[in-house]
Write a structure and sequence with these properties.
Blueprint lengths: L5 E4 L9 E5 L1 E4 L5 E3 L3 E5 L10
Antiparallel strand pairs: 1-3, 2-5, 3-4
Length: about 55
């Protein structure tokens, strides 16, 4: 990718809640043109239990 190319979720999944989310990635190139991926599923796993002692 060219320098200064950025990318982000087109629809940000809720990473606070476990589950399946439909999303896309949006790429913005230095000349301000964009490309958006096809829709795909992302799985957010439940948080693992903390192994830290308090």
């Amino acid at each position: 990718m060219p320098k200064k190319t950025s990318f982000r979720f087109a629809r940000v999944p809720n990473f606070k809640w476990a589950g399946s989310y439909k999303t896309q990635i949006k790429v913005t190139y230095p000349d301000k043109s964009t490309w958006t991926s096809s829709e795909f599923m992302i799985e957010v796993a439940p948080e693992a239990e903390s192994t830290q002692s308090n």
